[in-house]
Amino acid sequence: MSGLYKLYNYVLYGMAIGSGVVIVTAVCLIVLDVFMRVLGMDPLLFILTVVEYSLLWFTMLAAPYLVRIKGHVFIDAVTQFMPPAVKKAVAKLVYLTCIVASVVYGYHLYILLSEAIQSGEIDMRTYEIPMWLLFVSMPLCFGMCAMEFGRYLFGFDDMYDQMLHERDSV
Length: 170
Fold this sequence. Notes:
By secondary structure, this protein is mainly alpha-helical. Helix content is 68%, strand content 4%. It has one domain (2-167). Strands 1-2 form a two-stranded antiparallel sheet.
């Protein structure tokens, strides 16, 4: 089990690093596009499409890591004033809801990915890209988000264990 946990962590942190690479690449492509326009050159056709896809990929690759480090958006203004027993019950309900939502989204995105692969559909924008590239990261990422919320549900960590001022640096 330890080897599986290490592999999972390598994938998680690798996706976070990949997310950083994707967003840096997108920024560089935007700068290149603007620079070419300023010089009166025609920008490369693929830049807009690649940047649009990179925003999706950046978000999806970073999501499980952000859940792990509690860097995602969650509201605890109400729960921090609840009695500990009520707070724990509400937290478990939130974790379960997040797991169910992640699994449902991941399942439906897997279906969309399968259909896109089978149909060979092309995303027609300024540059043609296979539609499956839009969906390929999503089932894995939502599945990993479900596992991260599962860590909270089963008590390996707690999303609500820090006060608001302790999370300001995240």
